[in-house]
Write the structure tokens for this entry.
Amino acid sequence: MPDEKIAVGPGDRVFVLTGAGVSAESGLKTFRDQGGLWEGYRVEDVATPEAWAADAAQVWRFYSERRRGARGAEPNAAHRALAELEEAMGERFFLCTQNVDDLHERAGSRRLVHMHGELFMSRCENSPVSPAVFGPACGRTPFRDEALYESAEAIARCACGGRIRPHIVWFGEIPLEMERIQQEIERSTVMLVVGTSGAVYPAANFVRWAGPRTRKYYIGPEKPMNAQAFTRLMLGNAGEVLPGLLKAASSQ
Ligand code: APR
């Protein structure tokens, strides 16, 4: 574990991007590591609009299994360290997660967005998340949903007749809250990217969207694919590296 500290002063604004690695120490599988989710499933069978059209029950079985796993998991030291940093920095802190689990919230994070959606939310398949982009169809907004749907018959229906789908951004769909994310990146002076392989866009490009004055750190056990874009790589598990790093930061 590296013994390095990041100095954060009163003029700094911190933007954090997390990926599946931040929840690994809570026992949730990542996607692309050995034994990861994409070894057991094909993306095109469970995480695309085409998969939903072809076999909605198979898609829901995948996300029901994810719901079951996340329900049984607890936030780890990395989630807690980020919530503590937010507590110390207030509105100068912003967290964008690619994760659909709710472990950041359960650790106490509030200034966060889930750019790839949320596991415990569902929506009508006819209810676009961004009416401005797609045009309104069914007016029902995404809602809290912890149910498990494991057969075609079990899938709930909306009043409009549409099927209830996971509130997840699939491959080929547009990530959520991009305008706010872009604004927060542009005004950041420190960027922490934690536990993401740098394989999925646009998140893999956030480190390049930040200006030259922004110090950019990667935290995770292996080099990400976009490693060359960072100021420094802090190689280690998030739950071990983040707490020391952030204590130093919040005491500045
Ligand atoms: N601490 C920090 N990082 C870790 C840890 C840990 N304890 N364990 C593993 N990692 C790192 C791995 O080294 C890897 O680089 O987490 C990263 C996980 O990468 P991916 O599995 O590719 O997950 P992620 O980058 O979040 O995937 C992005 O892909 O399939 C989609 O929509 C899904 O949001 C997801 C997106």
Observations:
- The domain at 29-72+121-168 is CATH 3.30.1600.10 (SIR2/SIRT2 'Small Domain').
- The longest strand covers residues 117-124.
